[in-house]
Amino acid sequence: MAALALMFVLLLGVLSCSKAMPGSMMDKGANANGEDPGTVDSSGSGNGSTALQFPSAFFSDAALVKAGSASTVIMDRLVALINAADKDAHLYVNIYQFDYAPVIDALKQAYNRGVILHLMVDSSKESSETKNAAVFTTFRSLLSSPSELVTIDNDNGSSAINHHKHMLFSRLTVNGETYENVVFTTSENFTTRELTVLEDAVMFSDQGLYEAFVDNWNKMAAKALSGMKSFTFSQYTTSDGALQASFFPARENGAWNNHYMVADFLDSLDGDYSQDTIQVGMDQWSDGQIAVFDKLIALHDKGAEVQFIIRNESDGGLGTKFLAKLHAYQDAGGKVLILPDDQIIHSKYMLVNATISGKKRKVVLVGSLNYINPATQHNNNLLLKIENESLFKAYQDNYKAIQDMY
């Protein structure tokens, strides 16, 4: 009897400690409505109330955004993760714009308790220098080796920037349980301004993915002040093929590789198009990326359901030819939501439920990549291609919530 009891205890221990294995996409649930699937203690003691789940997705509260109020869902999650980072763990930041005080304070506290910080912040434009001034001042005086602050001056074009928005955690502890190789990436800059726009974030625990992000960080650091024109596009794909990370700009041998990945991906759709659904939530869309829109309309003409949620028309970022075609599609009965003048969707995602390369799949394309030429050709950016049922449902639920809200 004692032996049986011991075996039962051991089995419970194994089940309770299950995590996503390196190179896999274990499906442990996703967030669909802004509530955390697993909370993290905000004190930095590592005593959160429940375990983390991977992969997970997080979204701005659409009701708050519509009302003009701040939604802190994503930044609260980020602060909590920082507070859970272990002493001597490595924490990597790669960000375009950064002035949000709670995240700055959490990073200061993490450093003071022994977390090794690797901060990478854009300084490519005067606007970045201004927006990120508090971060530069704070951490230039605070950090000492092996912690570091790297400022990126992307010289791959007159308007080129570092457009990444992610954090990496080598190790953190929640409720006494340790998690390693955590990747948190979002559409949201770490700014007060972006609390009032529609955003999304995804979180993974995967060794290969984490190492790919760190490798990209180091490659960028080597070209921080000059040489981004010779940056080489790279990708990481999990062993099961369910997750692919692409690191931009799409350059090879010192030149753009002439590929628009999203357009190329749409070419892989085949089968019975009448069963396909494609939903796009996009911040910026220029006339230079009109080919993506044209491919979507061609799929619609073959029977696919194609829907759009787009930022307002008054703030710029949308091409005139693109808008003309979008309005024509809307006037013909296409499902289009263009947000009111004071509203922005800052997310950049496409949800594809379709037959792809001969197999029915549910794919989320998400990251920091707007549908504009500089995003692909010049800027440091990220595109994730994710095949995961729970993440797809979370994004689709968020999409419907926005449609219903507006």
Chain-wise SSE layout:
Blueprint lengths: L1 H15 L39 E4 L2 H5 L6 H12 L5 E6 L5 H12 L3 E7 L3 H6 L1 H10 L5 E5 L12 E10 L2 E10 L13 E6 L1 H16 L11 E4 L5 E6 L2 E2 L2 E2 L4 H6 L10 E6 L7 H12 L3 E6 L9 H12 L3 E4 L9 E9 L2 E9 L5 H5 L3 E7 L1 H17 L1
Parallel strand pairs: 2-3, 3-4, 12-13, 13-14
Antiparallel strand pairs: 1-7, 2-5, 5-6, 6-7, 8-9, 9-17, 10-11, 12-15, 15-16, 16-17
Helix pairs in contact: 3-4
List keywords for this structure.
406 residues; alpha+beta; Endonuclease, Chain A; 2 domains; 8-stranded mixed sheet; 7-stranded mixed sheet; 12 helices; globular; disordered N terminus
Principal-axes geometry comes out as globular
CATH homologous superfamily label of the largest domain? Endonuclease Chain A
Give the SSE order as H and E letters: HEHHEHEHHEEEEHEEEEHEHEHEEEHEH
Structural class: alpha+beta
- Helical content class: 25-40%
Largest sheet report = 8 strands, mixed
> Remind me, CATH topology of the largest domain?
Endonuclease, Chain A
First and last CA, distance: 61 Å
Radius of gyration: 21 Å
